[in-house]
Amino acid sequence: MLISPAYAQAAGGGSDFFVTLMPLVLIFVVFYFLLIRPQQKRMKDHKAMINAVRRGDTVVTGGGIVGKVSKVKDDETVQIEIADGIRINVIRDTLSSVRSKSEPAAGQGDAKPAAAGGGGEQGAKAGGLFSKLKR
């Protein structure tokens, strides 16, 4: 015979088991820090954003409908105005993002953006994307 039979080595120490298990543990740790943990953080932030929705906020639903929150009915439902006089009830969990938060009270709204130096939304609307390039 040209091929000699191979015999299994004697089952020995526990270090072989540890060395075999180490790559699996390392893969799990990498998956946890690169995939699982950021996803949990993203879900937590999204839930906080949805719980903070109030009347006057501009929101986007999961279906892509953009509207302004006209009424927060309860913990599950909000009423969104998508056009003049057209309001729909939406489950709060289906909101995908909040595009703009509502303005503060009328007496406080004028002083804060000027003090911050950013110009608020009005500066962004007037100059648009190219306003920063001119400076």
Descriptive notes:
It is a single chain. This protein is an alpha+beta fold. It is rod-shaped and about 90 Å long. The chain has helices at about 15-50, 105-110, 110-115, 120-125, 130-135; strands at about 60, 65-70, 75-85, 85-90, 95-100. It contains five helices and five strands, in the order H-E-E-E-E-E-H-H-H-H.
User: Which class of secondary structure composition applies to the elements?
Assistant: alpha+beta
**Tally of extended strands?**
5
How helical, in percent, are the residues? Answer: 40-55%
Spans where pLDDT lies below 50 across 5 or more residues: 107-129
Assembly type = single chain
Beta content comes to 15-25%
Alpha-carbon distance between the termini?
86 Å
H/E topology pattern: HEEEEEHHHH
The number of helical segments is 5
Gyration radius, rounded: 28 Å
**Shape verdict:** rod-shaped
- In round numbers, the mean pLDDT is 78
Strand order of the largest sheet: 4-3-2-1-5
Reported for the largest beta sheet, the result is:
5 strands, antiparallel
Secondary-structure map:
Layout: H1 15-51, E1 58-61, E2 66-72, E3 77-83, E4 86-91, E5 95-100, H2 106-109, H3 111-116, H4 120-127, H5 131-134
Antiparallel strand pairs: 1-2, 1-5, 2-3, 3-4
